[in-house]
Model the fold of this input.
Amino acid sequence: MADQVFVTLATTDKYAKGAMVLGKSLRNHNTSKKLVALIGPHVSEPSRAVLHKIYDEVRLVDVLDSRDAAHLAMMKRPDLGVTFTKLHCWTLTDYSKCVFMDADTLVLSNIDELFEREELSAAPDPGWPDCFNSGVFVFRPSNETYGKLITACSEGGSFDGGDQGVLNSFFSDWATADISKHLPFIYNLSSIAIYTYLPAFKQYGHDAKVVHFLGKVKPWDYSFDTASKTVKGQSHDADMHPNYLLQWWELFSSSVLALMKEEYGDQPFYSGCTEGDIHVDVGQMHLSHPPSPPMSSQERKQKWEQGQADYMGMDSFDNIEKKLDSFLK
Ligand code: UDP
Ligand code: GLC
Ligand code: MN
Done:
């Protein structure tokens, strides 16, 4: 069906890198659908050129910003006002049905079956499961719906300052009206949920079809050594599963890096990739933390309860898994 497409959004070059990897992950899993990227005016020419190589259509849209500093501060994400730009996806009226995917998602298997769902289908948000997460959703483009959404933004605003708040208020019966509009969580596995309910991840995680790197720190904030195939700079407070992070970078280095080189020239500073000892991406330096002093188990418990687990150290997935295994035995 030529009128069904996957859609993503990137207003910056960093999110454009995410969109490149997402697009490649959809193609690698043989989607039969077209791919559309919405971009903002600040995306650079070389990044646009790379997106054109991966996406069937790259469409320039105006950046819409909620400028709602108060609500965004509650999420500790002042950067997310621009996610109102996502609402432009309803203007893609050349298409009858679409699946929107955040640029920080990665597809692990073919998900074309999502097009059997109706507007508005989405998976629960891990923070408040009676809300849907707007990182992956099925919708029908319509100028009328777009107009109503924009009115809703200007009249009522958004309770989180971003698109997810306004979309949940608009499609307010999602939680109760029709269970077929609840996508299984495996279509939007937020990395944050892995650690909040680890046994469930152990039980069901292998079925995941889409990983969502939800949160402040994104895969492209790290760097990757192409010689040793290792991700560098994963910090203590990053709640990201190392294997998914590695998969993102492996796809980046195997399928996107060469396309970027064609456009940017052979200077790897833009890419986040290093080769052996040559480290070029100084933009990532802020992520390397000095080693922390050892913590008492009481302090660790407190930190865990405050949502500050040491995901890359003592509380790493491997360590928790070992502990669970020892209990189960
Ligand atoms: N986005 C963007 N530019 C920005 C912030 C967000 O293009 O400066 C787009 C991008 O598609 C991104 C989505 O809006 O994936 C939602 O933002 P993000 O994924 O950072 O939110 P989270 O899922 O972490 O809450
Ligand atoms: C969320 C979603 C993201 C959305 C943002 C702002 O956490 O993951 O897709 O853009 O909130 O509402
Ligand atoms: Mn996201």
